[in-house]
């Protein structure tokens, strides 16, 4: 089996590769020499190619696509021409123009883009009946202080990577849409810089959502945090239930990276994506709408 890692723009493909290397020959393309060097130091047997076209020319069985958001539509279009299974590391779009360009692509059922948390053992398999739920809340705790130093500035730029609201908010929106379905819309959003004043976006944010069946939801994004954790709270008439997702002793398993790659490898073998594109499209629309509703925040 041959898997192409097309781009190393975030930390995720490095983590993905640790699982993939147990099952497949790795082909890697990344234009940044430092990022590529860091990858090949860990995976010296990986086949390095100088372009996306040459990565796809190796006829990979699957592609993990991780390029800056503005480049995703064109890169995904090239992958789609091969017919290979494709995992697009989150989020697949961070702005309206990017989402419109994705909408024009012939995305097939072996394309997946998701937060890995959907596959975390603490969350996977959780189901709810919307009729039993009054409201839901997702809380994302993931520190963004690295961006405050200028690292990966495109992620922190609202017009490129979407900033904290999009790049971290996707985790919360993903979990709620996985539970309650894609018939959801954003009804409000706000962000602020509470601590990291050199950010281009915000370090805290909140989104309000409403599903067509009447359930309301809140996504809290806390980008100033000493630890990384995620939670979903289900409010019912007589009680509230909270599910907490943490890395634990094995973050690759505990945060869902391993489960995500297992799902991707099933796609490589011919299975459809377990995450319907209709859900991904709804998640991206909520995030893009939140970015539009909450312009870059002033310090608070």
TrEMBL record:
It comes from the Bacteria. Gene3D superfamilies: Dihydrodipicolinate Reductase, domain 2, NAD(P)-binding Rossmann-like Domain. It holds the Pfam family GFO_IDH_MocA_C3. Residues 132-228 form the GFO/IDH/MocA-like oxidoreductase domain. InterPro entries: GFO_IDH_MocA-like_dom, NAD(P)-bd_dom_sf. This is Gfo/Idh/MocA family oxidoreductase.
């Amino acid at each position: 089996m041959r898997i192409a890692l097309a781009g190393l723009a975030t930390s995720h493909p490095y983590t993905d590769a640790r699982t993939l290397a147990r099952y497949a020959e790795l082909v890697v393309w990344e234009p940044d020499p430092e990022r590529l060097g860091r990858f090949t130091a860990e995976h010296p047997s990986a086949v390095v190619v100088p372009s996306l076209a040459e990565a796809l020319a190796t006829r990979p069985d699957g592609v993990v696509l991780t390029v800056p958001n503005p480049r995703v539509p064109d890169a995904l279009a090239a992958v789609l021409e091969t017919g290979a299974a494709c995992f697009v590391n989150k989020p697949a779009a961070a702005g309206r123009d990017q989402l419109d360009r994705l909408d024009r692509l012939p995305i097939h059922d072996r394309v997946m883009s998701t937060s890995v948390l959907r596959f975390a053992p603490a969350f996977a398999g959780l189901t709810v009946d919307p009729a039993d739920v009054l409201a839901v809340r997702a809380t994302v705790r993931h520190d963004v202080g690295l961006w405050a130093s200028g690292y990966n500035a495109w992620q922190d730029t609202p017009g490129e990577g979407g900033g904290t609201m999009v790049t971290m908010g996707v985790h919360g929106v993903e979990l709620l849409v996985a539970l309650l379905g894609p018939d959801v819309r954003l009804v409000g959003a706000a962000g602020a810089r509470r601590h990291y004043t050199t950010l281009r976006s915000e370090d805290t944010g909140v989104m309000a959502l409403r599903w067509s069946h009447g359930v309301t939801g809140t996504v809290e994004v806390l980008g100033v945090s000493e630890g990384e954790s995620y939670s979903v709270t289900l409010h019912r008439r007589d009680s509230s239930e909270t599910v907490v997702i943490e890395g634990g002793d094995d973050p690759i398993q505990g945060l869902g990276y391993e489960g995500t790659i297992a799902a991707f490898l099933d796609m490589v073998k011919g299975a459809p994506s377990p995450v319907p594109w209709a859900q991904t499209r709804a998640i991206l629309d909520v995030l893009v709408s939140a970015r539009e509703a909450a312009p870059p925040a002033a310090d608070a």
